[in-house]
Specification:
Keywords: Signal. The chain is mainly β. The protein has one helix at 5-11; strands at 40-46, 60-66, 78-83, 92-96, 104-105, 115-116, 120-121, 126-133, 138-144, 149-155, 162-169, 177-190, 195-205, 211-217, 224-225, 241-249, 252-259, 267-271, 280-286, 298-306, 309-316, 323-328. Strands 1-22-21-20 form a four-stranded antiparallel β-sheet, with no helix packed on it. A four-stranded antiparallel β-sheet has the order 2-3-4-5, with no helix packed on it.
Length: 329
């Protein structure tokens, strides 16, 4: 299946006003599918070769969080979590005062490693997603290690974390599931399920095609999981999907996620509705560029706002040899 971006722009819902760039002085961005800003690449924030903690020469899966109004005496206005994937991996932190950078590497990286006695000893930990849990007034870190297991740790300062528990394993999913990782968690009410949090993650099976899975929870700790994928690879004409992120607009919910490079290497968007009952595949959310640093692949988006301007922080380039980049809406 191929997607025509022009068709999706014509059929996208209005969904409210498009955000302007304000003080940046540029013209307002065009509407993307779902009425979201049309993000444009600005630059590179992190490359593995410029980091002190660089055990494998690669970094993946950024998560950006504004902390200036949540934490006491933060290192910067924004915390950027990331890390290498391959063994030994490690959850890492950088901080800065603008979403366009620069970001400073935290000198104590990794802040979470592949051994955390007595809780686990694994080959690697990776894919940090940090949620500001307003109920607990803590930063909650979801991460995987091994690829079969997603874990939770908690912090009051976003730097020093205490281990909590395992929240997802392949054993909680249908037989034949081989991976349950790259999870992101969001505050989103599902009254019909008694839930206040939603988890999106990548799930793989013995068929070796990756889909987007999902679950729901009343508290962010104890979860139920759908036994069928939320978004299947075949439904959008791809071999593999990963890196899901939840966005909301105009009373509806949307999931953005990336495809494998063989299926376009782009970030796609599907409207799932406020109650996750809809499957409206809207096509390309962000079209990766053929030039550097994307080289035909954009992945694992995370979103933030800096003084009213929307940004997307994402992986740019081939998996395990790319950079952390930023696009502005």
């Amino acid at each position: 299946m191929t997607f025509d971006r022009r068709l999706f722009l014509r059929t996208a819902t209005a969904g409210g006003a498009v955000l302007a760039l304000g003080a940046r002085g540029a013209a307002p961005a065009a509407a993307a599918p779902g009425g979201f800003p049309d993000y444009r690449h600005v630059g590179t924030l992190l490359t593995a070769d410029r980091l002190a903690y660089n055990p494998t020469g690669e970094i993946i899966f950024p998560c950006i969080r504004g902390v200036y109004d949540r934490l006491s005496n933060p290192l910067g206005r924004y915390y950027l979590y990331y890390g290498p994937h391959d063994a030994p991996g490690g959850i890492c932190l950088a901080y800065g005062d603008s979403l366009e950078g620069p970001f400073t590497e935290y000198p104590g990286n990794p802040i979470v490693s592949s051994t955390w006695s007595p809780h686990y000893k694994v080959s690697h930990v990776a894919s940090p997603h940090v949620l500001w849990n307003a109920d607990a007034r803590e930063m909650w870190l979801y991460f995987h290690g091994e690829n079969t297991t997603t874990r939770l740790a908690r912090s009051t300062d976003g730097v020093r974390f205490s281990y909590d528990k395992t929240v997802l394993t392949t054993a909680m999913l249908p037989a034949g599931t081989t991976e349950a990782s790259y999870a992101r968690v969001f505050r989103h009410d599902l009254p019909g399920r008694g839930a206040r949090y939603v988890m999106l993650f990548m799930r793989n099976t013995t068929a070796n095609h990756r889909d987007i899975g999902w679950g729901w929870s009343p508290d962010g700790r104890d979860w139920q999981f759908a036994q069928e994928p939320l978004i299947g690879h075949a439904a959008v004409g791809a071999s593999d999907l990963s890196g899901p992120h939840l966005l909301t607009r105009g009373g509806s919910a949307y999931v953005v996620y990336h495809t494998d490079k063989g299926s376009g290497g782009n970030i796609l968007i599907t409207e799932v509705g406020a109650d996750f009952s809809r499957r409206n595949h809207l096509g390309v959310f962000y079209d990766s560029r053929s030039g550097s640093p994307e080289n035909g692949r954009a992945a694992a988006p995370s979103f933030g706002t800096d003084r009213g301007v929307p940004y997307m922080i994402y992986e740019a380039g081939e998996r395990l040899s790319g950079a952390i980049a930023v696009a502005r809406g």
